[in-house]
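Final report, Chapter 2: Outcomes

The project's central promise was a pipeline that accepts a single protein chain and returns its three-dimensional structure in a standardized token representation, suitable for archiving and comparison. That pipeline is now operational. To close this chapter, we reproduce one record exactly as it appears in the project archive, with the input sequence first and the structure output second.
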Amino acid sequence: MHWNFVIAGYLIVFIGLAVYIASVLLRSRELSKQVPEDRRRFLD
């Protein structure tokens, strides 16, 4: 069987997910700084 293709496929998927998760977390931190403190719900 072509295990190299299987491993490469999984690596592409997991690396893609990691990049996506990192970008979402970084973007959310940037956006959360723009919300006024009295409007931040997570502080309740």
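Archive annotation: The chain has one domain: 3-43.
This record, like all others produced under the grant, will remain available to the consortium after the project formally closes.
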